[in-house]
Design a protein that fits this description.
- Belongs to the peroxidase family. Classical plant (class III) peroxidase subfamily.
- The protein has helices spanning 2-14, 38-52, 55-68, 101-114, 121-135, 155-161, 169-178, 183-190, 200-208, 218-221, 226-234, 258-264, 271-278, 284-294, 296-310, and strands at residues 197-199, 244-246.
- It is an all-alpha fold and 332 residues long.
- It folds into 2 domains: 2-164, Orthogonal Bundle (Peroxidase, domain 1); 169-306, Peroxidase, domain 2 (Orthogonal Bundle), CATH 1.10.420.10.
- The protein has a two-stranded antiparallel ribbon.
- Helix 14 packs across helix 15 (296-310).
Amino acid sequence: MERMRLLFIFISILFNATTLSGVELLVHNYYKEKCPLAEDIVRHNVEVAVLKNPRLAASLLRLHFHDCFVMGCDASVLLDNVEGMTSEKLAGPNLNSLRGFEVIDKIKYLLEEECPITVSCADILAMAARDAVELRGGPRWEVLLGRKDALESSFSGANILIPAPNSSLEVLIDNFKQQGLDIEDLVTLSGSHTIGRARCLSFRQRIYDAKEEYHYGYDHYKRYTSFRRILRSICPVEGRDNKFAPLDFQTPKRFDNHYFINILEGKGLLGSDNVLISHDLDGKITEQVWAYASNEKLFFASFAKSMIKMGNINVLTGNEGEIRRNCRFVNA
């Protein structure tokens, strides 16, 4: 059953038939009459959580990303393990990595108190990601709302469709294309690595692999840069797999354009960051990176546009899916 569903998703994406299905039913101010305080409740609780722990901003943004790339933006990533269905939380890219579930749980609880069975978990994820970015100094955008929640998760889809931290540029481009996103979206959304952290397990290959694509810029001329020495001190060849390093060493808690400055200098933490430059054969990506590195307003405007586009991937609307009472379980 799971394989058949994945096959259907791949075919649908291939023919670009469902990538943005239901988007015409998503609207601004969807909850204005149904639940007027919905966006205020989401924002307030995201703000409280991020003030207590700034890392949660990146976590909430990542939750939305990992949700949308598997079967669409349908909150399938929030479902827990139940008999006959393995949670996406246990998939390789998510296990011991995704965080922020408790924040979503609290928001959902409060929304159920305010407006029972009205605000979907998928919409909560989209709003929380937007608010998390803005609260860390990033742009704000109007989130289209009206998504429904999935009735199942896809463990195998999470293992296949979420980009790996050591992906080549070719793989990244293909991965985003499957979701209806282009190269410009890929570069723009990679800018989310301006906040957050990564485990040693995710960037070890970037440090010790001799492949030139992982060591663009200063590394091209010098075998051991000070940046690589710092990374080696954090992440040895073996062990300390769960030791963290910031994705942006300069401004790790602020959403800004410094990520693009970093990769131009060969200081992207992940291999998938550095290949944007080192694998760019025609120079178009490098040109876009330079534009964002020199113009934060341009990056912010583009990021907002790409986030709206990503938030519309394979959404469920109308009679599709449901509005869960608890984001961790489908309704009985």
